[in-house]
């Protein structure tokens, strides 16, 4: 999976019409809440077989931080 595809998956998971970019602050995204954190854990498990702890996601400040959690699994 490419980075852009992951951004699209995250955008779909958030049910967000507007495009995400890596520099966006998570706390500025209206749809980013506790349910989004749980959904992200589920999404990463489904897409990458990666089990994230909620504190790993809670420590993320930007969309790029979410991507970096699985950067080693992404194609260039």
Describe this structure in words.
By secondary structure, the chain is mainly alpha-helical. The protein has a single domain (3-73), classed as Non-ribosomal Peptide Synthetase Peptidyl Carrier Protein, Chain A (Orthogonal Bundle). It contains four helices and no strands. It has helices spanning 3-13, 34-48, 54-58, 63-68. The longest helix has 15 residues, at 34-48. It is globular. The mean pLDDT is 93.
- Rounded mean pLDDT is 93
| Inertia-based shape | globular
The number of E-state strands comes to 0
Query: What's the order of the H and E elements?
Result: HHHH
Structural class, judged by helices and strands?
Answer: mainly alpha
* Second-tier CATH architecture: Orthogonal Bundle
Distance between the termini: 9 Å
Q: Name the CATH superfamily assignment.
A: ACP-like
Which CATH class applies here?
Answer: Mainly Alpha
Largest sheet: none
Notable traits:
single chain; 76 residues; mainly alpha; Non-ribosomal Peptide Synthetase Peptidyl Carrier Protein, Chain A; 49% helix
Give a quick rundown of the structure.
The protein is mainly alpha-helical and 76 residues long. The chain has helices at residues 3-13, 34-48, 54-58, 63-68.
